[in-house]
Amino acid sequence: MKTNLLHIKNMVCPRCIEAVRTLFEQAGYTPTDVTLGQVQLDENTPVDPSAVAPLLREAGFDVIMGRADQLTEQIKSALIEYLEHLRTARMPLTTSAFLTDRFAATYSHLSKVFSRTANLTIEKYLIRMKIERVKEMLSYNEMTLSEIAEKMRYSSGQHLSNQFRQVTGRSVSEFRRDLLPRRLSLDQLG
Length: 190
Prior knowledge:
Elements: E1 5-9, H1 14-26, E2 31-35, E3 38-41, H2 49-58, E4 62-64, H3 67-88, H4 95-103, H5 107-118, H6 122-140, H7 145-151, H8 157-168, H9 172-177
Antiparallel strand pairs: 1-3, 1-4, 2-3
Helix pairs in contact: 3-4, 3-5, 3-6, 6-8, 7-8
């Protein structure tokens, strides 16, 4: 079955968008729009998903066939935007308000689908994302823990420190002492 819209797993950043666009162009397809998690092709060049799946897999991506998997990947992409919203909004929305606005669906529905397909709750996935962003900021050694906590909307440095230990199994100071701290890419979070 050929289609003009493909949903792609593991697209987490602008470089992923460019990589997927290049893959499709090199394979002879004409993408008209490539966004996090989706490729829209020119109406004259539909594609059989199974034909491009091996190319995508080789580059670390994958075609998503099921509707629940597609929604889960869309939620993951929206959560990346939500992290930026948290960082920049004067009065940020709650996670549930942000997602229900984005998807015009109840948070309960989104949460059930996400939990079932990702084997992880939205909240735990968001916490993992936040901790990876905290690791990035810690590795630059430009801000104090309190400044990072404020930037990431934690109630205190202690709250951030406790959550960091829960997620990583290490304290913030242990992480800072590590010469080669281990960070995860967003597609490895769940």
